[in-house]
Amino acid sequence: MTGCVSKDTDLCAAIPAAKLPAINQAVLNACDAKDGLVDGVIADPVNCSFNPDTLLCAGAETSSCLTSAQLGTLKKIYAGPSNPRTGAKIFPGFMRGGEDGWAGLVGNPTASGLGNGYFANLTFEDPNWDYKTFNFDSHMAYADFKVGLLGNAIDTDLSAARKRGIKIIQYHGWNDQTLQAFEFLASHL
Description:
The protein is mainly alpha-helical. The protein folds into two domains: 9-109 and 156-188, no CATH class; 110-152, no CATH class. The protein has helices at residues 9-13, 20-31, 68-79, 103-106, 114-123, 138-147, 159-163, 182-188. The longest helix has 12 residues, at 20-31.
Protein backbone atom coordinates (compact mmCIF):
# COMPACT_ATOMS: atom_id res chain seq x y z
CA MET A 1 0.00 0.00 0.00
CA THR A 2 1.15 3.51 -0.65
CA GLY A 3 0.41 6.67 1.25
CA CYS A 4 -2.66 8.65 0.29
CA VAL A 5 -1.97 11.54 -2.06
CA SER A 6 -5.55 12.68 -2.66
CA LYS A 7 -6.45 16.32 -2.17
CA ASP A 8 -9.71 15.07 -0.64
CA THR A 9 -8.87 14.58 3.03
CA ASP A 10 -11.94 12.33 3.47
CA LEU A 11 -10.41 9.83 1.06
CA CYS A 12 -7.10 9.85 2.95
CA ALA A 13 -8.84 9.39 6.31
CA ALA A 14 -10.98 6.47 5.13
CA ILE A 15 -9.98 3.12 6.58
CA PRO A 16 -9.73 0.56 3.77
CA ALA A 17 -11.52 -2.72 4.40
CA ALA A 18 -8.18 -4.51 3.98
CA LYS A 19 -7.00 -2.94 7.27
CA LEU A 20 -9.99 -4.00 9.36
CA PRO A 21 -8.66 -7.51 10.16
CA ALA A 22 -5.41 -6.03 11.52
CA ILE A 23 -7.34 -3.54 13.65
CA ASN A 24 -9.57 -6.32 14.97
CA GLN A 25 -6.58 -8.54 15.74
CA ALA A 26 -4.84 -5.73 17.65
CA VAL A 27 -7.99 -5.21 19.74
CA LEU A 28 -8.30 -8.94 20.39
CA ASN A 29 -4.63 -9.10 21.38
CA ALA A 30 -5.25 -6.33 23.92
CA CYS A 31 -8.57 -7.50 25.37
CA ASP A 32 -9.59 -11.06 24.47
CA ALA A 33 -7.82 -12.79 27.38
CA LYS A 34 -9.36 -10.50 30.02
CA ASP A 35 -12.28 -12.89 30.51
CA GLY A 36 -9.91 -15.80 31.15
CA LEU A 37 -10.39 -17.45 27.76
CA VAL A 38 -8.63 -16.60 24.50
CA ASP A 39 -11.41 -17.39 22.04
CA GLY A 40 -11.62 -14.49 19.61
CA VAL A 41 -14.43 -12.86 21.61
CA ILE A 42 -14.23 -9.89 23.95
CA ALA A 43 -16.79 -10.69 26.65
CA ASP A 44 -16.72 -7.18 28.15
CA PRO A 45 -15.90 -4.61 25.45
CA VAL A 46 -16.84 -1.73 27.76
CA ASN A 47 -13.71 -2.50 29.77
CA CYS A 48 -11.44 -3.12 26.79
CA SER A 49 -8.46 -0.80 27.20
CA PHE A 50 -7.14 -1.07 23.63
CA ASN A 51 -5.13 2.00 22.65
CA PRO A 52 -5.63 2.78 18.93
CA ASP A 53 -2.33 4.70 18.86
CA THR A 54 -0.52 1.34 18.81
CA LEU A 55 -1.60 0.96 15.17
CA LEU A 56 0.12 4.11 13.89
CA CYS A 57 2.46 3.28 11.01
CA ALA A 58 6.08 3.60 12.14
CA GLY A 59 7.36 3.59 8.56
CA ALA A 60 5.74 2.88 5.22
CA GLU A 61 1.99 2.32 5.25
CA THR A 62 0.94 -1.35 5.16
CA SER A 63 -2.30 -3.24 5.66
CA SER A 64 -1.36 -3.78 9.31
CA CYS A 65 -0.99 -0.14 10.37
CA LEU A 66 -2.88 3.15 10.12
CA THR A 67 -1.82 6.55 8.90
CA SER A 68 -2.41 9.44 11.29
CA ALA A 69 -5.54 10.42 9.31
CA GLN A 70 -6.89 6.86 9.50
CA LEU A 71 -6.04 6.69 13.20
CA GLY A 72 -8.11 9.85 13.72
CA THR A 73 -10.99 8.16 11.90
CA LEU A 74 -10.73 5.05 14.08
CA LYS A 75 -10.87 7.14 17.24
CA LYS A 76 -13.96 8.94 15.93
CA ILE A 77 -15.63 5.62 15.12
CA TYR A 78 -15.07 4.40 18.68
CA ALA A 79 -16.23 7.72 20.15
CA GLY A 80 -19.31 8.12 17.96
CA PRO A 81 -20.47 11.34 16.35
CA SER A 82 -20.77 14.51 18.39
CA ASN A 83 -21.82 18.02 17.51
CA PRO A 84 -18.50 19.76 16.78
CA ARG A 85 -19.81 23.06 18.16
CA THR A 86 -21.40 21.88 21.42
CA GLY A 87 -19.77 18.50 21.96
CA ALA A 88 -23.24 16.95 22.46
CA LYS A 89 -23.24 13.24 21.64
CA ILE A 90 -25.43 12.33 18.68
CA PHE A 91 -25.00 8.57 18.55
CA PRO A 92 -22.86 6.04 20.41
CA GLY A 93 -19.59 4.81 18.99
CA PHE A 94 -18.76 1.28 17.90
CA MET A 95 -17.63 -1.29 20.44
CA ARG A 96 -14.12 -2.65 20.33
CA GLY A 97 -13.87 -6.21 19.08
CA GLY A 98 -16.06 -6.26 15.97
CA GLU A 99 -13.90 -4.26 13.58
CA ASP A 100 -13.73 -7.01 10.98
CA GLY A 101 -17.47 -6.53 10.39
CA TRP A 102 -17.30 -2.80 9.66
CA ALA A 103 -16.47 -2.97 5.94
CA GLY A 104 -19.92 -1.99 4.71
CA LEU A 105 -20.13 1.08 6.92
CA VAL A 106 -16.70 2.55 7.58
CA GLY A 107 -14.78 1.47 4.51
CA ASN A 108 -16.69 3.89 2.32
CA PRO A 109 -15.51 7.53 2.40
CA THR A 110 -18.58 8.70 0.48
CA ALA A 111 -20.99 7.84 3.32
CA SER A 112 -23.37 6.14 0.93
CA GLY A 113 -24.40 3.62 3.55
CA LEU A 114 -26.54 3.96 6.64
CA GLY A 115 -25.82 7.60 7.52
CA ASN A 116 -26.37 9.00 4.07
CA GLY A 117 -29.40 6.77 3.56
CA TYR A 118 -30.97 7.91 6.83
CA PHE A 119 -30.58 11.59 6.08
CA ALA A 120 -30.98 11.53 2.29
CA ASN A 121 -33.92 9.16 2.23
CA LEU A 122 -35.78 9.46 5.51
CA THR A 123 -35.03 12.99 6.64
CA PHE A 124 -34.69 15.09 3.50
CA GLU A 125 -36.34 12.75 0.98
CA ASP A 126 -33.66 13.77 -1.50
CA PRO A 127 -31.43 11.03 -2.96
CA ASN A 128 -28.99 13.73 -4.08
CA TRP A 129 -28.48 15.14 -0.58
CA ASP A 130 -24.76 15.60 0.08
CA TYR A 131 -23.53 14.40 3.47
CA LYS A 132 -20.81 17.06 3.37
CA THR A 133 -23.52 19.70 3.85
CA PHE A 134 -24.60 18.16 7.17
CA ASN A 135 -25.20 20.81 9.85
CA PHE A 136 -25.04 19.22 13.29
CA ASP A 137 -27.44 21.76 14.75
CA SER A 138 -30.20 22.29 12.20
CA HIS A 139 -30.07 18.95 10.37
CA MET A 140 -30.03 16.82 13.52
CA ALA A 141 -32.92 18.82 14.98
CA TYR A 142 -34.84 18.46 11.72
CA ALA A 143 -34.15 14.70 11.63
CA ASP A 144 -35.48 14.35 15.19
CA PHE A 145 -38.58 16.32 14.19
CA LYS A 146 -39.15 14.59 10.84
CA VAL A 147 -38.28 10.99 11.62
CA GLY A 148 -38.79 11.16 15.35
CA LEU A 149 -36.39 10.25 18.04
CA LEU A 150 -35.84 6.93 16.26
CA GLY A 151 -32.57 8.39 15.02
CA ASN A 152 -31.54 9.68 18.44
CA ALA A 153 -30.48 6.78 20.64
CA ILE A 154 -28.85 8.92 23.31
CA ASP A 155 -31.87 9.71 25.51
CA THR A 156 -32.35 6.62 27.63
CA ASP A 157 -34.84 8.06 30.11
CA LEU A 158 -37.11 5.17 31.04
CA SER A 159 -38.63 6.87 34.09
CA ALA A 160 -42.18 6.84 32.68
CA ALA A 161 -41.98 3.08 32.23
CA ARG A 162 -40.58 2.66 35.75
CA LYS A 163 -43.41 4.76 37.22
CA ARG A 164 -45.94 2.47 35.55
CA GLY A 165 -44.15 -0.63 36.85
CA ILE A 166 -43.23 -1.84 33.40
CA LYS A 167 -40.33 -4.24 33.15
CA ILE A 168 -38.24 -4.14 30.00
CA ILE A 169 -36.14 -7.04 28.81
CA GLN A 170 -33.72 -5.91 26.18
CA TYR A 171 -31.02 -7.87 24.40
CA HIS A 172 -28.48 -6.45 22.05
CA GLY A 173 -25.26 -7.77 20.58
CA TRP A 174 -22.07 -5.87 21.31
CA ASN A 175 -20.99 -5.68 17.69
CA ASP A 176 -24.04 -4.53 15.78
CA GLN A 177 -22.73 -2.03 13.26
CA THR A 178 -25.97 -0.06 12.98
CA LEU A 179 -27.41 0.12 16.48
CA GLN A 180 -24.89 0.49 19.27
CA ALA A 181 -25.53 -1.11 22.65
CA PHE A 182 -23.10 0.98 24.68
CA GLU A 183 -25.16 4.07 25.48
CA PHE A 184 -28.11 2.09 26.77
CA LEU A 185 -25.96 -0.15 28.91
CA ALA A 186 -23.65 2.59 30.21
CA SER A 187 -26.60 4.62 31.42
CA HIS A 188 -28.24 1.69 33.20
CA LEU A 189 -25.33 -0.09 34.88
